[in-house]
Amino acid sequence: MSVLVFIETFQGGFKKPALEAVSYGHALSRLMQGQCQVLVYGKTDQPGLPGRHGADSVLYLDDEDGLADTAWLSGIIAREAAKFGAKALILAQNSTSRGILGRLAVSLKSGCASGVTSLPEIKEDRMEVSRSAFAGKASARLSLGGPCKVLSIASNAVLMKTDGQDAPVEVLTRPEPSGKVKVLETKRISGEIPLAEAERVVSAGRGMKEPGNWGIIEDLAHELGAATACSRPVADSGWRPHHEHVGQTGLAIKPNLYIAIGISGAIQHLAGVNNSKVIVVINKDPEAPFFKAADYGVCGDLFEVVPRLTAAVKRYKEQHH
Ligand SMILES: Cc1cc2nc3c(=O)[nH]c(=O)nc-3n(C[C@H](O)[C@H](O)[C@H](O)COP(=O)(O)OP(=O)(O)OC[C@H]3O[C@@H](n4cnc5c(N)ncnc54)[C@H](O)[C@@H]3O)c2cc1C
Predict the structure, then answer these.
(1) Are 262 and 204 in contact (CB under 8 A)?
(2) Distance between CA 107 and CA 77 in Å, rounded?
(3) Could you tell me the distance, in angstroms and rounded to a whole number, from the CA of residue 234 to the centre of ligand 1?
């Protein structure tokens, strides 16, 4: 009983969530006593690299990064899943999978679930999977039926396998696009590390007083190799771009480390970040609600604490290089 994993390239390589999806596909295929095939879409010099993360074989569809029409792409994926006899189709949770998950489930006449957080329980011909619900406040359990269940995997939810070797690659002939939709251009968000998949996040709120003060946040994020985020009023005021806004009405994230600086910890903010593994709060108000959700708290003026923390991280890195 085999598993097909679909992943895309990014700037000639692979993003971490894509390789996590491969590791998930590998673990699931072994649970089902089958093989894990990976369909790589995009442009890369290393199409066999997913083998290091658990792929037994790779199909490579060579094309420009992220320029596919989703109807055309899902047609190809469904065809390959059927050819391979896949009983499960695995995707990383991202903007592409949001566009193709439903189409694939319809084509494959199977149930689908997005943002899956753990390996499924297999119950005869059904699969039970868990996913988070209500902006991370609850978890849902779904039972999926059909010949080829379709799952997208939440970022940072699975441990990445790294002990494999490059897999054998078969190059696919590129079918003609359907022509119904033509993607003319895609613009990628700039920034050192994409927030949705960051392992560490440095986030700041209205306590920063004004946008010109964000240099200390960026310095700390840079030293930690972290992405930057912010509270909603900060994005609403135009101090930071909207794609950095986390919370109930923003992005829900699940990093290993979330540092909240000058953020009060309103329930709507917590809804997007309370699944973080470790939360550190820096706030001058000892009554700030965020301290109740914190693993570590520093009660002090952020304009003193943050530069000292950055200097300490820098020192630590120099000493342990
Ligand atoms: C329907 C709805 C949806 C919402 N969705 C979201 C959402 O998705 N995300 C979100 O973030 N908010 C959301 N909000 C808004 C939310 O309720 C809060 O108003 C918001 O999170 C507060 O932002 P803040 O903590 O940055 O600002 P404030 O509440 O103003 O808090 C600033 C904090 O900084 C501290 N501070 C000030 N100066 C310093 C200093 N020098 N050193 C250290 N600490 C200092 C203060 O003690 C205070 O705790 C939503 C609200 C509603 C009604």
Answers:
(1) yes
(2) 10
(3) 8
Q: Which tokens in the block code for residue 231?
A: 């509270």
> Residue 290 C-alpha to ligand 1 middle, in angstroms?
10
Q: What percent of the chain has pLDDT over 70?
A: 96
Burial of 122 (0-12, 13-18, 19+ CB in 10 A): middle
What is the chain's Cα-based Rg? 21
Q: How crowded is residue 267: how many other Cβ atoms within 10 Å of its Cβ?
A: 12
Tokens found for residue 198: 């960051």
Question: pTM of the full predicted structure?
Answer: 0.70
What structural domains and CATH numbers belong to the chain?
Answer: 2-171 (3.40.50.620), 195-319 (3.40.50.1220)
Binding site membership of 249 for ligand 1 (Cβ less than 6 Å):
yes
Cβ distance 262 to 242 under 8 Å?
Answer: no
Query: How wide is the angle at C-alpha 79 spanned by C-alphas 78 and 84, nearest 5°?
Result: 100
- With CA atoms as reference, report the closest residue to 8 among 47, 56, 37, 54: 47
Q: Ligand 1, atom 49: nearest CA belongs to which residue? A: 264
User: pLDDT tens digits, residue range 74-97?
Assistant: 999 999 999 999 999 999 998 889
Tell whether the model's pLDDT for residue 65 goes beyond 60. no
| Straight-line distance from the first to the last Cα atom of the chain, in angstroms, rounded to the nearest whole number | 46
Find tokens 């406040």 and name the residue.
Answer: 137
